[in-house]
Amino acid sequence: MATFANRSKFFVKVRQRDDLYRTFPYSAPKAARAYLQQLRTQGFKPVLGQHEDTIVVRLRTKGF
Fold first, then answer.
1. Is 46 exposed, middle or buried (0-12, 13-18, 19+ CB in 10 A)?
2. Which of 8, 47, 48, 49 could tie 54 with a disulfide, CB 3.0–4.6 Å?
3. What is the pLDDT of residue 64?
4. How many helices (H) and strands (E) does the chain have?
């Protein structure tokens, strides 16, 4: 049995506004969502995403 998990950083970006781009660790999705809401209240249309550069694969065999 194998399980896959995306453990990459989260990012928040606004189109054509590179100064508002921020990354957040995998362990801080609440901080990323808070920044997203902060930008929305300022009138921006931010996008929340997650990179795909750190993948954890776990292989397990019954009995071991």
1. buried
2. 8
3. 61
4. 1, 5
